[in-house]
Structure formats: structure tokens, C-alpha cells
Amino acid sequence: MQTNTSPSPTPTRPTGLLSAIVVVAALGYFVDIYDLILFSIVRVQSLKDLGITATEELTNQGLYLINMQMGGMLLGGILWGILGDKRGRLSVLFGSILIYSLANLANGFVQTIEQYAWLRLIAGIGLAGELGAGITLVSETLPKEKRGYGTMIVATVGVSGAMLAYWVGEALGWRNAYFVGGGLGLALLALRVGVYESGLFEQAKKSEVERGNFLALFTNRARLARYVKCLLIGVPLWFVVGILITLAPEFGAGLGVTGPVTAGLAVFWCYFGLVFGDFASGTLSQVLRSRNRALQLFLVFCGLLVGVYLFALRGASPTAFYTACFVLGISVGFWALFVTVAAEQFGTNLRATVATTAPNFARGSVVLLVPLFQALRGPAGLVGSAAILGFVSLLIAFWAVSTLPESFGKDLDYVER
């Protein structure tokens, strides 16, 4: 149930698209994506340096470490989401940056797979908080007619962090790449000056309504349905990034690509495409005045590109393969739009909880997608198993978008009871 508890207008400060809040949220997401994607880029190089040389083991140990990182994000999503509604958006924004920065600095010193795994878990917990807190803060401080543009800026700047991760990983090596990521995060903490807490959150603190109760999402059938649908919208992106792109060397070999394919370059081109995709999806939602129609168009586009990737690249050149990764990246460039929709679907007392858990549960879906992919790989093969998972995740996501209430231009000054 939605209840507006504000008898008088919410006190707000003038907030522009290039305000300190938007800038810090965008740069925070930039470092978040740098650190999140870095492992996919340096997976083979780092594991070889730690003594893993067999091809099968490189894949298995790589998936193990991805699962540890994503498992951390599942735990962190709940932790930071609850804290965001109980203690404030800013405490989560900067607390999460501090934790993942320290974890990534430590990651540069690892000597064993187990050390690597536990630090990816801790980094995952830290990485879970930044995006949800940033999107919530931007959504609550910008005028409702500008929200889509604000979150578009956060996403467009943020996803380009993956390209920096590729350049640094290639130029400086995997250990130094982790040091750089940790250093960038710690430097970002200096920008706290000029960033203020959401007025809607400050007002909710004065009310008697309970804030940050994660279990409240499960006590009302309609609320739970909205929440689950929000989660499902983000799964196709992490199917693409977590399986098709992370395992690009394996898919390149399986498709008979005529030259070597590296995960680093596949990630680079995919995220380069994401920059354009996030810009396009955010703008399209504003032009169409509909979040849902923009998401539907991008999901259809994504389905077409997954088909191209899996069935039209046999015997292709590496250039054609990387071009497909780039366009596939454009097609899944609805990430910040998805998080914006999640934030707009819920009241102030649960908004950070949802906006933080939804993207992290979507990211964490890799933990389920990977064993499903491995189980299907035996009977269906590499391409067949990916096709099945892709088709199912996209179909479910399209249904979820189509049955969610439209949230464009929605007044966010209300609480859930």
C-alpha cells in the first residue's frame, strides 16, 4: 500500500543535472564498474600467475571466483539496502566505496586461489551498495521530469569504467590494476563535500513508518510481485555479461572464430557499447515518456543480438566477433533504466532497499545461471545451453516489464505501509 505522509511540500534544494550529487554518483559508479569488471578482464592472466594453467581449470576456477564475487554482492545488496533506508543514502554511498576500495587494494597482494576468492567476496559486498544508493539519491533529489536524464548520466559515465579497467589491466598488469582501482575509490571519498542527504529521506525519518524492513517486501502479495518483476528485468544483462562476454574465449573457439579472442577485449567492446546503450535507453524513456516501452524495445533488440552472437558468427573474424560484442553491449544498455524503474516502484521507506537489492540480485543471478549453463552444456552443447538460458531470461524479463505499472513522472513522495 502506498501512503503519502507529507502534509506539506517536501523541502528541497535546487539540484541540476551536473550537481555534486549526480557527479559523485556517476564517478562512484565508474569506479564500481571498473572494480566489478576487472576480474573478467584479468581472469586468465591472474590465474596463470597463481599456477593455474590447464584450460578446463582456468574456466572452472574463474567461474568459482565469479560466484564468490557475485555471492558477496547478494549479501551486500541486502545489507546496504537496509542501511540505506535506515541510516541514509550517503552513508551507504561512501561506506560501500570504502570497503570495495580496501578489498581491491588487498587483492593486488594475493598468493593463493582461496585468498583471491575471499577478497572477491569482500569486494562484492562493497560493490553491492554504490549503484543503488547513487540512483536512489539522484532520483529523490532531481525534479521528476529530469530523473531519467540524471540516472542516464550516472550510467553513461559509470559503465565507461570497464574500458579504463581494460587499458590499465593491459598496460600495468593485473596486480597493479587492482591497486589502481582501490586508489581511485579512496580518492573519490574526498568528493564527499557538497553532497547532501535526500530531502525525502530526511522527511521519512520524522515519520513513524518503519524504514528498511527487507521482510516487508514479502508480507504483501502486490508488493512482492512488483519486487520480483523488478529483479527479473535485470537478469538478461547479466546473462550477457556473466556468460557470453566473460566466456568469450570459449565461445570464440566453439564458434570457430578465425583468430584468438580475449575476454579483456570482449569486455572492453561490450562496455563501450553499454555507454551508448545507457545513453540511448535513458533518452528514449524520456522521449517516449515511458520507462516500460523503452525497456521492451531494448529487450527485443537484445534478443536479436544474442541470436546473432550465437548463430551468425561461425567462422567469423575476430573483428566481426568484437563488433558483435559492441552491438550486444548497446542492446543491454538498459541497466540504469532498470534500477531507476526499481527505485520508482517503491516508497521512500523501502526505496533504497529495493534499488540496492534489485541490481545485486540481478547480478547475483549469475550464481544460478552458471550452474544451469554448465548442466545444460552436456546435452545441449556450448551454444545450445547459452541459447536456452538467453531465450528464457529475455522472455521472462519482457513479461515482467509488460506487467509492471508505468513509473515515468511518478511522484516519489510517499511511503509503503
TrEMBL record:
<feature type="transmembrane region" description="Helical">
    <location>
        <begin position="319"/>
        <end position="342"/>
    </location>
</feature>
<feature type="transmembrane region" description="Helical">
    <location>
        <begin position="261"/>
        <end position="282"/>
    </location>
</feature>
<feature type="transmembrane region" description="Helical">
    <location>
        <begin position="382"/>
        <end position="401"/>
    </location>
</feature>
<protein>
    <submittedName>
        <fullName>MFS transporter</fullName>
    </submittedName>
</protein>
<feature type="transmembrane region" description="Helical">
    <location>
        <begin position="230"/>
        <end position="249"/>
    </location>
</feature>
<keyword id="KW-1133">Transmembrane helix</keyword>
<keyword id="KW-0812">Transmembrane</keyword>
<feature type="transmembrane region" description="Helical">
    <location>
        <begin position="116"/>
        <end position="137"/>
    </location>
</feature>
<dbReference type="InterPro" id="IPR020846">
    <property type="entry name" value="MFS_dom"/>
</dbReference>
<feature type="transmembrane region" description="Helical">
    <location>
        <begin position="175"/>
        <end position="195"/>
    </location>
</feature>
<dbReference type="InterPro" id="IPR036259">
    <property type="entry name" value="MFS_trans_sf"/>
</dbReference>
<feature type="domain" description="Major facilitator superfamily (MFS) profile">
    <location>
        <begin position="21"/>
        <end position="408"/>
    </location>
</feature>
<feature type="transmembrane region" description="Helical">
    <location>
        <begin position="90"/>
        <end position="110"/>
    </location>
</feature>
<feature type="transmembrane region" description="Helical">
    <location>
        <begin position="20"/>
        <end position="42"/>
    </location>
</feature>
<feature type="transmembrane region" description="Helical">
    <location>
        <begin position="294"/>
        <end position="313"/>
    </location>
</feature>
<dbReference type="Pfam" id="PF07690">
    <property type="entry name" value="MFS_1"/>
</dbReference>
<feature type="transmembrane region" description="Helical">
    <location>
        <begin position="62"/>
        <end position="83"/>
    </location>
</feature>
<dbReference type="InterPro" id="IPR011701">
    <property type="entry name" value="MFS"/>
</dbReference>
<keyword id="KW-0472">Membrane</keyword>
<feature type="transmembrane region" description="Helical">
    <location>
        <begin position="149"/>
        <end position="169"/>
    </location>
</feature>
